[in-house]
Amino acid sequence: LKIAETLEISDSLTMEGTKTPGALLELVECRPVPAIIKGDEDALGGAFDLFWSIHLHSVENANPTKNELQCIKNETRRVFREIFNSEVGIPVTFIACTLRRRTRERWA
Known about the structure:
- By secondary structure, the chain is of the alpha+beta class.
- It contains two helices and four strands; from the N terminus they run βββααβ.
- Strand 1 (9-10) and strand 2 (18-19) form a beta hairpin.
- The longest helix is centred in the middle third of the chain and has 20 residues, at 41-60.
- The model has no long low-confidence stretch (mean pLDDT 80).
């Protein structure tokens, strides 16, 4: 992970020239963490809202009318709640990353 590896920063004293700090962080590990999210209707509603916000742009590209868009959203919500309910839950995968500050001289 080469965050800020090529970031140019002006010399703060002279405001001339630039320095490159180099990679500030190193990626140590990155792994998927599967989980099942269960909860009340608020939790499922929040999950649907996230789902809808991810897919809304694709639906809008088909140029539906406002009424059609609302019908699509309502039907999608119905199917979403049929598949994912408070008893079954919603399977998700989180990505857990471990980063470490790089040990090196500053501005090396």
